[in-house]
Design goal:
The chain is 35% helix and 40% strand. It is α+β, with helices and mostly antiparallel strands. The longest helix has 24 residues. The radius of gyration is 17 Å and the shape is elongated. The chain has 2 helices and 4 strands; from the N terminus they run ββααββ. It has a 4-stranded mixed β-sheet with strand order 1-3-4-2.
Length: 106
């Protein structure tokens, strides 16, 4: 299945639009990741633990998006947009939402 941020699929013709679909993933950050991220904030550098959580949430949202598209009979999702938010008490959870248009192309 093609998943793309573009509105078209180069070299292919979209023959059917199935509608806008979304995939969501919510992942909590644990205490140890928070502690190590705080240390990284103080001394500088990247937070590998948060980057892994962020990547995992994005992959889960994209898999859910693909699953919804397949359920509609689509073979691609175009115009994908990813949104990232923190939610929950003390912003302790990360939510990633992927949205796009499920289509059939040939």
């Amino acid at each position: 299945m093609i998943l793309t941020t573009t509105n078209t699929i180069e070299g292919h013709v979209i023959t059917e639009y199935h509608g806008v679909i979304t995939g969501e993933a919510i992942i909590g950050a644990n205490l140890f990741k928070d502690i190590f991220a705080s240390i990284t904030d103080l001394v500088g550098g990247r937070s590998g633990s948060y980057e892994r959580v962020l990547r995992e949430a994005k992959e889960n949202a994209m898999m859910e998006l693909e699953h919804h598209a397949k359920g509609l009979g689509a073979n691609a999702v175009v115009g994908i947009d990813l949104d990232y938010e923190t939610i929950g008490h003390s912003s302790s959870m990360l939510m990633v939402t992927a949205s796009g248009t499920a289509v059939t192309y040939k």
